[in-house]
Amino acid sequence: MQLLSEQELERRKDREELMKLGINPYPAESFPINVTASDIHRNYENRKNDYKSVSIAGRLMSRRIMGSASFAEIQDSTGRLQIYIRRDDICPEDDKTFYNTVFKKLLGIGDFIGVKGYIFTTQTGEISLHVTELKILSKSVKPLPVVKRDEEGNVYDGFTDPELRYRQRYVDLTVNPEVKDVFVTRSRIISNMRRYFDDHNWLEVETPILQAVHGGAAARPFNTFHNTLDMPLYLRIANELYLKRLIVGGFDGVYEFGKMFRNEGMDRTHNPEFTSMEIYVAYKDYIWMMEMVEDLLEKVTVSVHGKSTVKVGDKEIDFAGPYRRLSMYDSIKEYADVDVSKMDEEGLRKVCADFGIEVDDTMGRGKLIDEIFGDKVEAHLIQPTYITDYPIEMTPLAKKHRTEEGLVERFELFVNGKEIANAYSELNDPIDQRERFEEQLKLAERGDDEAMAMDEDFLRSLEYGMPPTSGLGIGIDRLTMLLTNKSTIQEVLFFPQMRPEKKVSIATDEDFIKRGIDPALIPAIRDLNIHTIEQLKEQDVNKLFNDVCGKRKKLKLDAKNPSKEEVAKWVE
After folding, report:
1. What pLDDT, on the 0 to 100 scale, is given for residue 11?
2. Tens digit of pLDDT for each residue in 97-151?
3. SS3 call for 280
4. Integer Cα distance of 4 and 278 in angstroms
5. pTM for the whole thing?
6. pLDDT one-digit tens code per residue, 175-204
7. What is the tens place of the pLDDT at every residue in 83-93?
8. Interatomic CA distance for residues 507 and 42, integer angstroms
């Protein structure tokens, strides 16, 4: 059973009344639109002759009824526009029902309408549409939250609860239209990155989301099962190994924007599914990739902000290169004042214990170093900084360092204390790669549920030969957070993962009887849209008494009217 508020019940009645008047509140035919609200506000003063025949549609967001004429506001995808409606203009014949009844009584805030007319300027100087024709396009049966603004336009009673905003993004976008700007910027970030790659003749591709082997990153996968093939499958944690197969196949550069899925915790910077861009370019190394990333991010930032700097919280971040470069070992030495470069696993565990860093027996040397780095270094990396030359244990897919024993050619880009990009000189030695995978299997045997699996087909592809290659992954969600000055990943995802909504417990007849209600009066209670004990307790005693007595009579129930004292016991 759907629980409906008093307003929802009234709106459903309005919907029925429209139908009785022969008006379809959900017409099938299209409505012609030849202008937007923003276009009118931007150009009317300079091109008045272009706005003598306007057709526009949007949500009814406010109205001020003044007898035979009214002002209202409609909101389309670009903004709001004031409209002026006269009874005799939309009802030119003797029958004024469409204005007196339909517009004034049966239309509500949130309904979609289409209007035609001409633009003029009111005596107060506001650009408005004088309506000559109005059509209902969609009746809203749920009321929008009321967002109040002061005379300066500042919101002081808005739709701000994050739980509701993320769960009901469609409402958030309607009553907080500035939220759209975040997602417009996100789209521009992706389109500008795509344009940059296409200009370099790198090919956009698609790779499988369902994978037989979860590889390409250290993360827990989501498990699923294919019935026809009778085999387990995984939602991809990365697309790296498939993109490298394409380099083996002869492409010089491939990239993909796609969803990745990792079965891990949720917080301000993590969502179980996230968008990543990965690119692989043949005959390049991680040093070349650093220079490319600096050029890419500066161009993207300028394209969306007009400059290379952005405001992030109370900080000014500059994406113009070159970025600072600091090795993993040197960063720990600088910010934690400890040299871990020669330490074995036992020594690293002691360092973690001294710093109060929580570790477990499944963690090998690489993870222990990563824990120290995360606890002591990351928060200091505010301006774009490359952390380079990682211990080999931390990176099974990167090429061994050309000069430093025990390291690999890898960098991560950190901005505002968070990693937003990861890149390698890719490992293309199939023998070395197999040995690295075997080390991962040993970690898995120790209980590391993020260790990589052995991918025999990927190893086979390397055996055919892969040219020297550099690969890069950028987290689109985190990059968008930076370029829109948002502190949580949920703000840059249309529909972030949420916990299930709490189900409302509908009261049974027995529940009402336990409150002292005569069983014969329960139909009257339910007809008043009271379906839970919580709703019953919220009722005003005098109103409920009068309503129940009225419903008993209207429904012709075989029951006596309750006393006020009895009703008071129902709600206490």
Report:
1. 95
2. 999 999 999 999 999 999 999 999 999 999 999 999 999 999 999 999 877 666 6
3. strand
4. 47
5. 0.86
6. 999 999 999 999 999 999 999 999 999 999
7. 999 999 999 99
8. 55
Chain position carrying tokens 């990351």: 378
Q: Across 99-190, where does the E strand assignment appear? A: 112-121, 127-138, 148-149, 155-157
Radius of gyration of the chain (CA): 32
CA distance 324 to 376: 18
Q: Residue 431 corresponds to which amino acid?
A: I
**Collapsing DSSP states into helix, strand and coil, what is residue 246?**
helix
Q: Are strands 407-415 and 418-425 parallel, antiparallel or unpaired?
A: antiparallel
What residues are paired with 128 via a beta bridge? 82, 120
Residue type, 184: V
278 known ligand binder:
no
Question: Which comes out higher in pLDDT, residue 561 or 150?
Answer: 561
Task: Report the alpha-carbon distance of residue 293 to residue 287 in Å, rounded.
Answer: 10
CA separation for the pair 304, 313 (Å, rounded) = 18
> Annotated binding residue at 240?
no
Which of 117, 130, 122, 110 lies closest to 58, judged by CA? 110
Q: DSSP letter for 216, please.
A: S
Q: Is the Cα dihedral 41, 42, 44, 46 positive or negative?
A: positive
pLDDT digits (tens, 9 = 90+) for 200-225: 999 999 999 999 998 888 789 999 99
Query: Quick check: helix, strand or coil at residue 413?
Result: strand
Backbone torsions φ then ψ of 536, nearest 5 degrees: -60, -40
- As a whole number, mean pLDDT of residues 536-543 equals 91
Distance between CA atoms of residues 268 and 494, nearest Å? 15
Average per-residue pLDDT in the chain?
93
Look at the block and give the residue holding tokens 């030495």: 333
CB 505 within 8 A of CB 549: no
| Tokens standing for residue 153 | 């336009």
Q: Where are the beta strands (DSSP E) in 92-237?
A: 112-121, 127-138, 148-149, 155-157, 203-204, 210-211, 222-226, 231-235
The arithmetic mean of pLDDT across residues 250-258, rounded, is 98
